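Instructor's aside before we start: the two examples that follow are unrelated to each other. I chose them only because their records fit on one page, so don't look for a connection. First example below.
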Amino acid sequence: MSIEGGLHGALADSTIQPGFHVLPGQGNALAAETDAGVVLVDSGMRRRAQAMMDSLRRFTDQAVHAICYSHGHHGYNASVDLWQAHNRDRGDAPPRLIAHANLLRRHARYRETDELQRRSAAVQFPGRQGVPIDLLREGMVLFDPDEVFEDTLTLVTGNRPVQALWVPSETDDAIALWFPADGLLYGGAATPGDTIPNIGTPLRTQRLTIRWADSLDRLVALDAEVLVTEFGPVIRGAAAIRTRLTATAEALRWLRDEVVDRLNRGMGEREILADMVYPPAQFEQPWMAPTYGCADYIVRDLVREESGWWDRNPTTLHPAPPDVAAEAVRRAIDDPVAVLARARELAEAGDTQLAMHVVDLLALAPGDEPEVAEARDLKAELCRRRAREVEPYVSKACLASSARLLERGSSSWTDLP
């Protein structure tokens, strides 16, 4: 999985029911036939645009009336210009480009932090060999929409009306599409599929847990008969949809209550993480699997919502430069061989995470002293082992990317290829 190849939806190149198709785009890219033409969710990655067009034309010859931006994350709408050319080559009118108003602010922020966004993507979507930062430029191109709305937009009327709804969740610009005549809902980023909402994911800004729960409540109120998730299956039947969405919202609110209770008792982030026990009845449901997000991520995001950046260790309030501090720790160790031996002993006993804490006494130090180089190699090995132990994809990717950096003799993102 990489940002070049994109994230694959489970329903690609299929018809859900008459007039509703899923193209092989970024996630389940819905294409709905309407009286005005095709309403498409997301234009997809550039490398996948032609496959999406070929798929659409196997289903229908209707013109593309509108491209709706499901949300503002990179990759979902990197091919807008190619779809515009597709319409132009067919003699069709240009497609409307529709998004929530917050997406324009997101695009402005992404342009300002372009280098950071590409470094983060290189870490989160590394593929098997890693993706050089410069190769990510094409996949992270941005096209602004030409129509935006704040809460609700009726974008097509007629026999198959289409409404766009603001459902802030994974992003503050996420939308859902509602087809009331068909009872069909495209939940977008608010309903990722068979994974717990990816709130608090390590490389992203805050996602506001209760806001996501409130958006799920809004979707529940539609009483949909068919739910198309962003990456996972189609859910059929009003009762099944209500159960999934309501249970997810309740779990998010439970997490909020539990974290706030512990914060009120004076606990810090690590203490809270160590103390949390997630009830199986809520967190062992198919739609709450920790495959992309995980409950621990959400806990950390909730702590960030209500607490500052300080981890409550007085040493970190005004820290020394990282290289200087790490070198001071290394010089304070009388027997670096013993540190490495203890880290290996813990790893062999199956305590990979504890081994990583121990090896950091040496692995973070600058320079190429033999014990430091050995510690970096050991930490890289531990990262790869830990990646096999944890469930969330993002954790696996971050650990694998960190291992690659360590094998290059560094732990700094300034040294990403």
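Example two begins here.
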Amino acid sequence: MAKLIDGKAISAQIKEECKERVAKLKEEGIEVTLAVIQVGNDPASTVYVGNKKKACAYIGIRSLAYELPEETTQEELLALIGELNGRKDVNGILVQLPLPKHIDEEKVLDTIDPAKDVDGFHPQNVGALCIGKKGFVSCTPAGIIQLLKRSDIEIAGKECVVIGRSNIVGKPMALLLLRENGTVTVAHSRTRDLKEITKRADILIVAIGKPKMITADYVKEGAVVIDVGIHRNENNKLCGDVDFESVAPHCSAITPVPGGVGPMTIAMLMHNCVESAS
């Protein structure tokens, strides 16, 4: 049976490390501050924002919450970001996505100062990742690298397949695996013979957005499988993009849903916040 990669335990380690660093920064007179902006009251966004505030409180990061009404204009939102960019006491700025339809997400993300872009979505940070320069990295892929490293899973020289090519997970994930000397293939909805490709993978990272799509016949015996998906099934139970029951017996290691990748995203956000003040 596969080793379960415990995202809760690993994220807790990272949060403890962040807590220690925040305490040291406070001794030096530096208070780490994250500004979180939410426009409208999308229920899932409200839950995510609440979890981010709790994590900040636990680690000792000051969080400033800007809960704006749905009808907030793009100009008003950009003006707020401009003001936060200019504030010396704010280290990180996070705009909770999705935004209401009348606001251009790309324009908003491009307006955040790259040095305060703790989500790692600004083109400057994405470009830095592409050419191996220092910058903030998108939290979910950064968290997956930590899951692998802290579970003693070697990436260098391994055949790595990423299913999914989103700007938030798939593309940065491929770049991070390359940075760790993995041999990387990116597959997606237009990929032909997907099973042939995924069955080559020593490390298979699934971020395809379809519940339980990846079954045992997609997976090489002894592979490491990382499931980024999160859905509710017909019984309202959480599940991932991987059919855990059919795949787990064939893996050397696998992440569960929930309790795998999910907790790592917020842990890495906290890590980025601490970096922004360091």
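The domain at 139-262 is CATH 3.40.50.720 (Rossmann fold).
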